[in-house]
Structure formats: structure tokens, C-alpha cells
Amino acid sequence: MTATPSRALTVAVLGTTQTLSWGSSYYLPAILAAPIAAEFGISRAMVFGIFSSALLLTAVLGPAAGRAIDTRGGRDVLAVSNLVFAAGLALMGLAPGPLVFGLAWAVMGVAMAMGLYDAAFAALAALYGKEARNSITGITLIAGFASTVGWPMTALMEAEWGWRGACFGWAALQLLLGLPLNRLLIPRVPPPAKAAASAANGNGPAPRLADMALLAFVLATAGFSASALGAHLPGVLQATGATAAAAVAAGALLGPAQVGARILEFGFLRRISPLVSARIAAAAHPVAVAVLLAGGAPMAAVFVLIHGAGNGMLTITRGTLPLALFGPVGYGRRQGLITAPARAAQALAPFGFGLLVDAHGAQALWLTAGLGMMAVAALFLLRMKGRGE
């Protein structure tokens, strides 16, 4: 009889495979867009446009991926995602031109729907039910270093083997590391009969549609702001008067701020309601914008720290708040529905926010600050079932 892996091991495995999957997909274009564009004779903007299209496909497929996890459990779906990631990366490495390159990113869009945070959160919800909060926080702590690990690894492989070799290298890691970890070390726990029947019928427990809509809006605003600032942070800081060096130095604080906030969530904040935690997190960005626009360039580092902390906590909220509000039954499909607008917002934000920054400089932050305040208001309209938060 095979022993069931401990919860700590499961979290470590999922954190590792999430780091691998984020590093070989979401964080890939930042390093490879330039050499790919140069070889194909297209603009970097077109490369990122193809990538954005893949993110939109991920948003569309999210509910189906979540339903598959509800029905089959997280282990099988995550293991298949490693195979699909490997296929997409191999096809990318073989692409003779933009058309096949775009097809490769369509395959990657399928893989991202099956294999990134929402799928991992659903797997944990199926395993641990409402007790999954700390486990969700744990994998975001580990995978919070995906860019820290992924960007240098991609750059190293590209320098040694070219951009095609980098794609093949990541494909090999998906097969040799991600697949056995997900397939062999994640417990196979069939969903409860009620959850399986609900998933098979295409619905979970009677959803509170207004609450689902409010939460979808909150996550969409968070996704838009995170993606917009992720793409344009140095430029926005320079628009306040910061030098290029100061903007880069301040921007480097983003990752540590996110991880630091997740450590805080794992420790002190786990004692408070996920809804209260979400309200604090959503309020962080508007506060950060007010500080930056009032104080200008000298407040750049403070802005990044506050914004980064809120963004780090909101990543956890994306997994824990739906679980707390609606429970684990039908979590995967419902998570796919709730986060679909957020995925779409993340895909569209770099382009749309970039136009605003070009036209209005740092004043473009009033948009993200306004969205943040609307998210806070939406969170105050939500109530935990049977509690007064």
C-alpha cells in the first residue's frame, strides 16, 4: 500500500512545478521576444500580441480545465499539462515562422489553462477542502520566485543554445522534472461523490451569482493593475521624475515585497478572515498611488513596496477567498469562471495601459487607483456565509 505524501511535500511539489510552469510560459517572452522577432522579421509588439492571444485562450478554457479537475482530481490534469507544455515549447522551438509560432502559443494557452495557479489551487481544494488556505499560500511563496528563477535560466539557455534551444530546454524540464513530480508525488484523492456528480452535471452547489460576479470583478481589477504595472513600472516611475537607474532599483523591490506579504499572510494574517485580508490587499494599490503622486520620484520605492505587498496578497486571495465563500465542492469549474475576466484583463492591460502612459504619463495611475477603490467597495458588499465580515 502506497503511503500518502504529506501535506508539506505536496505543497513543495506544487510550488516547484508551478515555478517551472510559470517560468517556461508566462515569463518566457520577456527574454525571448527580441531574438524571435529578429529571426522572423516581425516586431516585438507582434510577439507579445501572440502571447496575449494565448492568455485570452487560457481565459476561455479556464472553466473547462477546472471542471476536469473537479471530475478527475488535480494530479491527472496537472500531469497532462506538463505534456501539453512540452508539446507547445517543442513546437515553438521548431517553428519556421510566425504562423507556426502562433500555433505553438495556442498550445501553450491550453497548457496554461490546465497548469498554472488556478489549477494548482483547485487541486489543493480537492485534497484539503476549506483547510487548504495555508497550502495555497505555501505554493505562492515558492512560485513567487518564478521570475527570479525563470528569467536567468531562459537567458542562460538562450545564450548557450539560442532561443530555439531555450524552448527545447524548458520542454525537457517539463518532461523530466514537472511530469514525474506532478504524476507521482501529488496524492490521488477522488473528489467526493457529491462533488463528482455536480462536476459531471456541469454545476456545483447553488452558487450565489451576485457574490461570484463581485469576486470576478475584484480579481479582474487586480489582474489588470498587476499586469499593467508589471509591463510599465519603470516607465511610470520615470514619468514621475525618477532617473532610469532609480526606477530600475525601485522596481527590483517588487518581487521581495510580494514574497514578504505572502510570508505575512502565512503567519500573522492567517488568523484573520480571507475576506478581511482581501480588503487590505485591494486597498494597498490606491494607497500606493496616492503616496507616489503626492510625493513624486522620492516615493518611488515606497510605491513599489506597498503595491507589491498588495499584489502578493491578492494572488493568495485569488485561491483562498472563493474557497472560503463557496466551499470546495465544484471549486475548479467555479474558479475557472470567476478568474476568466482576470485572465482577459491581464492579457489586455499591457497594451491598453501603455497607451495611457504614453498620453498622460504617471497620471495614468488614476485609472488603476480608481479600479482598486472599486474593488475595495465590492469586497465590502461581500459577506462570509454565516459570519459578519
Automatic annotation (TrEMBL):
Task: Please name the GO terms that the record assigns under molecular function.
Answer: transmembrane transporter activity
Domain named Major facilitator superfamily (MFS) profile is located at: 10-387
Q: Enumerate the UniProt keywords alphabetically.
A: Membrane, Transmembrane, Transmembrane helix
Q: Which PROSITE patterns match?
A: MFS (PS50850)
* Listed transmembrane segments: 45-65, 77-97, 103-128, 135-155, 161-181, 213-233, 239-259, 280-306, 364-382
**Superkingdom of this entry's organism?**
Bacteria
Protein name, UniProt field: MFS transporter
